[in-house]
Backbone:
């Protein structure tokens, strides 16, 4: 990490205060989604006990309050956090090279199903990052989703997101 004339961290990178604010706001947003959906399905105490959304509602409220506490703390110490660097840009690049494909994978699950998306994701990473050959890549990238399919869909009877291939095969 680089230091400025005052000995403080201050190299080019994401500042701690902005990262703290962004994460706190995301936590609050997640809490708000939980609260909203809990209220949609019922978050009251009924005559026979708590409704389905009662405890998730409390968790959502706790998330909102926790995020708010971080926002308030960050704003109270705004000037003290001014020179603090959370991560330098050159150290952020390897994180993003893993994060971006993972986000694409999560989105692909919606359209391809978890098994096909997983096969592509595993295979792509084995070739790109692991530099594996064709035989190990195909065996692992096809083997893992097939085993997971058998485990979840056939043995445990737990349906996971499916795409066009599984529908075509009758699942």
Residues:
């Amino acid at each position: 990490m680089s230091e400025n004339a005052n000995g403080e961290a201050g190299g080019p990178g994401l500042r701690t205060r902005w990262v703290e604010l962004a994460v706190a706001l995301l936590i609050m947003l997640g809490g708000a989604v939980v609260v909203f959906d809990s209220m949609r399905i019922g978050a009251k105490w009924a005559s026979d006990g708590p409704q389905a959304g009662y405890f998730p509602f409390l968790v959502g409220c706790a998330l909102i309050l926790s995020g708010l506490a971080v926002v308030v703390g960050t704003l109270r110490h705004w000037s003290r956090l001014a020179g603090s660097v959370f991560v330098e840009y050159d150290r952020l690049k390897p994180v993003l090279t893993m994060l971006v494909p993972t986000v694409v994978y999560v989105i692909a699950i919606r359209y391809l199903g978890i098994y096909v998306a997983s096969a592509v994701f595993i295979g792509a990473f084995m070739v790109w990052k692991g530099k594996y050959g064709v035989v190990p890549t195909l065996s692992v990238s096809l083997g893992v989703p097939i085993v997971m399919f058998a485990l979840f869909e056939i043995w445990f009877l737990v349906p996971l997101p499916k795409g066009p291939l599984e529908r075509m095969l009758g699942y």
User: Anything to note?
Assistant: The CA atoms of residues 33 and 60 lie 8 Å apart.
